[in-house]
Amino acid sequence: xxxxxxxxxxxxxxxxxxxxxxxxxxxxxxxxxxxxxxxxxxxxxxxxxxxxxxxxxxxxxxxxxxxxxxxxxxxxxxxxxxxxxxxxxxxxxxxxxxxxxxxxxxxxxxxxxxxxxxxxxxxxxxxxxxxxxxxxxxxxxxxxxxxxxxxxxxxxxxxxxxxxxxxxxxxxxxxxxxxxxxxxxxxxxxxxxxxxxxxxxxxxxxxxxxxxxxxxxxxxxxxxxxxxxxxxxxxxxxxxxxxxxxxxxxxxxxxxxxxxxxxxxxxxxxxxxxxxxxxxxxxxxxxxxxxxxxxxxxxxxx
Amino acid sequence: xxxxxxxxxxxxxxxxxxxxxxxxxxxxxxxxxxxxxxxxxxxxxxxxxxxxxxxxxxxxxxxxxxxxxxxxxxxxxxxxxxxxxxxxxxxxxxxxxxxxxxxxxxxxxxxxxxxxxxxxxxxxxxxxxxxxxxxxxxxxxxxxxxxxxxxxxxxxxxxxxxxxxxxxxxxxxxxxxxxxxxxxxxxxxxxxxxxxxxxxxxxxxxxxxxxxxxxxxxxxxxxxxxxxxxxxxxxxxxxxxxxxxxxxxxxxxxxxxxxxxxxxxxxxxxxxxxxxxxxxxxxxxxxxxxxxxxxxxxxxxxxxxxxxxxxxxxxxxxxx
Lengths: 302, 320
Prior knowledge:
The complex is a heterodimer. By secondary structure, chain A is mostly helical. Chain A has 13 helices and no strands. Chain A has helices spanning 4-12, 15-32, 34-37, 78-114, 116-131, 134-148, 151-169, 171-186, 189-197, 201-209, 214-237, 249-257, 266-293. In chain A, α4 packs parallel to α13 (266-293) and α9 packs across α10. Chain B is of the alpha/beta class. Chain B has a domain at 1-83 and 213-320: P-loop containing nucleotide triphosphate hydrolases (Rossmann fold, 3-Layer(aba) Sandwich), CATH 3.40.50.300. Chain A binds chain B through residues 1, 115-116, 188-190, 192-200, 203, 207-208, 211-212, and chain B through 55, 57, 60, 84-90, 93-94, 96-98, 101-107, 115-116, 119-120, 153, 164, 167.
């Protein structure tokens, strides 16, 4: 293991990590503080004026000082929608990863510790789940959901649905990682010692083995947040994700896409840049975390 | 009735689809309350297997194929999972070889001790902590209070083994099984730890099964010795008698191999050959390929344990 101070030291000696961390921090702050700092509340129809629609960024001819990055077809400021949309994207990403982690860690822990037919059964289940593409599963589930409920109900529950669908579709990644670590930890003597003490299997699994497998879980969690955000963006782009009146980054890109040929490129471009920055910073941080926490890649000084 | 009585214990591991090989081939053992027994043998003789079998903790695919482990008249091998858990770590505890790996690296000493206690006693956190600190003091750990919040990697090997011993003593067990408790430690620490175990066993009237390959250690601590070879007990008796007048050629070989029994400047004695793996045991007495007294009877039949020795041509002991 690496101590916390060494961890911090490694972070501040790596320019890529600092860069990714700063970008992520700015985006998260922007999303969390959106209701306070956004120039406009894009969810409030009273603040929108259809006369403001499709304005270019403020420095362009025809731009308006109120809308730094221009407006979309409904007169919402692109900057404000990005601020709120980033929050929704992050919420879905983190929520989906929590669902994945809960499912995956539980099943991976049981599979690895119990072994035998339970292990075979759970891992074949994981294989089947992985052979169905996440996107395909999500499209089917969400299309059914959209067809089954009216638009208002759908709008209310879309976030929960997206979190559940992406969470359930991606559990095998956690399960496999946890299982393989458990197989390694299970043979160590502290597990024998815990059994000799007379602890029940449940306590040994959750209290003794799980804390020793959290390093890889931490790494894939970071990368899976990025993955979940991408999946959500793809679904929204296909019209199956967040509704356009509560847009995520993906639905913003989609709503602007219709206007790109009429010259209103800013509606699509800016949300897309933010999405790229968000996913890239998460992935870079995940890679960095993996390198730091992997003792085989460790440099001499720690 | 003896406190612990192991009767004809066999442990088998599968080989291929149908076949099985036996790691223990019928071991008998008796232990009275407060008695200290040494189990001695080379690596692979089945010593640790015996310890795990007593607690019914043989890991799959291995299994106890035959025999009984009677503890106060109860067969531990037949108890339900729940009941045997109430005995493990409570009435019988175990000390492992390497304290570097037997403590969970991510949990503090205190967490691991309190958890052990709470698994077997209804006790408040505060009382548990008090008792743990008391035990840590008993095993002579300096500044016990602050060690409770330390992680295993912050302690030295000797201190860690003391913590392991403290955990083993936590629930006032009747029997401690110590599986090579000093092998992984520094030579200077070994004697300290051994005398600590001896002292605590005497003070608390705890029975001890000391598993080791070092006859020198056993001689100082135990009252009786059992010598194991290839999954069988080959000689058994009071420590003094076995050390001074061994009857099995293997025991005598082990004693001759001790450095303190060799003359100054002499080459150390070495038993020729090595112990056969359990998958390729010779016919008859497993020791005969290395034995200088082996005859045709030794090559065909397994000698039974009679009068404390399993040999057709035993050496003349002191008594006989």
